[in-house]
């Protein structure tokens, strides 16, 4: 059986996921597309045999030829489409963020709980990265003892001019927030944000880099150095320090060359290069689960929790204070992180 996927939002990542669904993965095809920029959607549809063009996301979701939906439009538009998918009983893969406010995420969680089954998967693709998975395996095996703290770096080479300091937290570090919850099977209890010396490459009034300190409820501390003007490449690092040893993300998936007393390897250009395989694995898992009549992966609760922690991070950034995170009761539908 082939899963007919409708895509809402055909910008940068939407087109990358369309390529993935069309040329790389098995069991799905892109059956429908739409975008608020209809000309862009038409151009994309023209390259997809048999794909229909829709005037709006709502029209696409209602289309009988669409079995499941991929939402890759701008963050503030996600809520409307995810809620419409839940109302239509269609499985939906929503790129991060699930929604941009706590209230919007709560409405999605409430709608899914009322539907009585999971219909939403959120695109936190790091959970599917082989290097992060190996790290989690080492932590959960117990072989290196109980975890105490985690160091993480999330360095972007550059960002578009519309990027702000807030986005270092809710657009970039949101991935590290999800990793922390998933790595330690735990919730985040409080957030503090520190501002190191500002990079001379940062635009005026822009705090970059930031250090985001996450306190897990277990007491584990996670420090995330996040920046968006690193220039030299896209550099994602991590180390978990445990009682009997440590585990680090391996530095490179490619070859390390040693020559003339030096060694070198490639630094990825961007998140597309660094996480290409993780995106493939994530989507194949979604296709397989949806085809089997269920869903998988990061849930609406995970999307809700990440947004609530980001909100605390923004409050910590503007106030300079330690901000507690109050999530509320996790519904039974979402038993595991
Ligand atoms: P983009 O600006 O390149 O593309 C977004 C597209 O959505 C545009 O074509 C825009 O016209 C369209 N759009 C906007 N409002 C719409 C609406 N109401 N209905 C239909 N289409 C609409 O942005 P992008 O970089 O592709 O990011 C899209 C989403 O993917 C964002 O939520 C972003 O955070 C997420 N993202 C995730 C990752 C990741 O690593 N998982 C990486 C990049 C982007
Ligand atoms: C982008 O939107 C992503 O989600 C990338 O994974 C992240 O590394 C980058 O900082 C974001 O801007």
From TrEMBL:
SUPFAM superfamilies: Glyceraldehyde-3-phosphate dehydrogenase-like, C-terminal domain (SSF55347), NAD(P)-binding Rossmann-fold domains (SSF51735). Residues 132-248 form the GFO/IDH/MocA-like oxidoreductase domain. Residues 3-124 form the Gfo/Idh/MocA-like oxidoreductase N-terminal domain. Its EC number is 1.1.1.18. It is an enzyme of class 1 (oxidoreductase). It catalyses: myo-inositol + NAD(+) = scyllo-inosose + NADH + H(+). Keywords: NAD, Oxidoreductase. Gene3D superfamilies: Dihydrodipicolinate Reductase, domain 2, NAD(P)-binding Rossmann-like Domain. It comes from the Bacteria. InterPro entries: Gfo-Idh-MocA_inositol_DH (IPR050424), Gfo/Idh/MocA-like_OxRdtase_N (IPR000683), GFO_IDH_MocA-like_dom (IPR055170), MI/DCI_dehydrogenase (IPR023794), NAD(P)-bd_dom_sf (IPR036291). Pfam families: GFO_IDH_MocA (PF01408), GFO_IDH_MocA_C3 (PF22725). Involved in the oxidation of myo-inositol (MI) to 2-keto-myo-inositol (2KMI or 2-inosose). Homotetramer. Belongs to the Gfo/Idh/MocA family. This is Inositol 2-dehydrogenase. It comes from Pseudonocardia acidicola.
